[in-house]
Amino acid sequence: MPIEPAPNAAPPSCPRCRQGLQAGQQTVDCPACGRRHHARCWQANAGCSAVDCPDQVGGLTPTEPFAADLPMSGSGAVEATSPAPAHDLPNDSLGHDDVVLTISNEDLLQAIPERPRRSPTERSRPARGAAFPASPSERSTGSQEPKPLNRLAVASFLTGLAGTVCVGMITGVVAIVLGVLAVARLRTGRERGIGFAATGVVLGVFDVLLWGAALVTWLSPGPGSAPADSSDDLEVDLAALAQLDPPLRRAMLANVLIRVRSGGFLREEGMGSGIILQLDPQSAWVLTNRHVVDPDYSDRTNTVAPPGTVRGTIEVKLVGQPLQPGQVIWTAPDGIDLAVIQTNVVPVPDAPARPAEADWESTTEPRIGDEVFAVGNPQGLGWTHTQGTVSQFRTQPRGNRQVRLVQTSTAINPGNSGGGLYDTAGRLIGINTATIDKRLADGLSFAIDFKTFLSFRVPFLRPAAGAAAAP
User: Fold this and answer.
1) Which domains are seen in the chain, by residue range?
2) 349: Cβ–Cβ under 8 A, 6 or more apart, which residues?
3) Which pLDDT score is estimated for 66?
């Protein structure tokens, strides 16, 4: 029946297409709920489309004719008097020309959702954190237990870590072996701990290299030093010193032997030489190289070492006397390789030889080609004499200073460092400091010019030391 629009009211809508019901359109009223439909929507749905009227959904059967022309009443008849084919209905009955497809509630209940499709790569790759397919029990519970931690990997890590704080030559090797075995087992994927194994191997290698280098350094003598015990069984014949010419005898009596033991776990021992510059009945002041008495000294050192800051134990042996403790009381500025130590003098009655001061008052300037000799303790062999010539004079920059060096062909070996280089008159002209590696060249040795030391004006020495006569 025609729709009579109510004034100032929105037109009703069809429950199926949700389009408004306009005047002049063919409509059908549901006999159960009274909802009005487009005639075409009623026919397409085979009954009522209202959600709250389930009894009428699909109420008509395909064979049941659609009475489009019958008068419309509350029983569900249509107003039209003759059936109208679907293609003859006006287009504005639905507001469009498309055929409306309807899915019933039964269709939705029977629908099976499609599984999401995955690429071949995703199908072949296991889930994150899972090395193997889950077991039936895991699939049933929906969870996966974590893989156990490999014990060899943990042992490798702990062993390598322990080797960094103790002697790790052995523990380092053990950590490497355990780490390699752990990696071999972890390749099966049934255990975890590859990080522990790799770290254990790295720590093991580090332990072996570190402690190997430390062991070599510990066992080898320091620069310019000799083994500390090499002279214990080879004492100097003091009676032979009395037969020497005065210049050489004086240089011999002014020579001292210095033994140094550094503190710490890596115990270092070394031996060098020194020169007595000032002497009284109780004390002796000895000039030497800083690298002989300061284990922390290196070519990069550019500062002084205040008294009391040099680590280690210093022992000094004067001719004919036992070892006495010594202490560093002065080091040269700008890290120049010079130091002064003070030690005790022990009276030894009826000694065949007694310590003496070196002759260092002379202002004589040595020349290239002059004969010179050295006195020191090479390889711990105390009071050894070697002879040569002045080869050249050179300078070396040290901070803001130029250090003058005497190049000589005199044999200088480890243990000679800190000893004196003298001219033929027995006058001190240099402090033996360095030599070229004998595997590369021979006869190339260097001494710091004694006048370099005098330029510092060391306060505790006499301005012009009166050299004591040798006994």
Assistant:
1) 1-128 (no CATH), 151-219 (no CATH), 238-454 (2.40.10.120)
2) none
3) 45
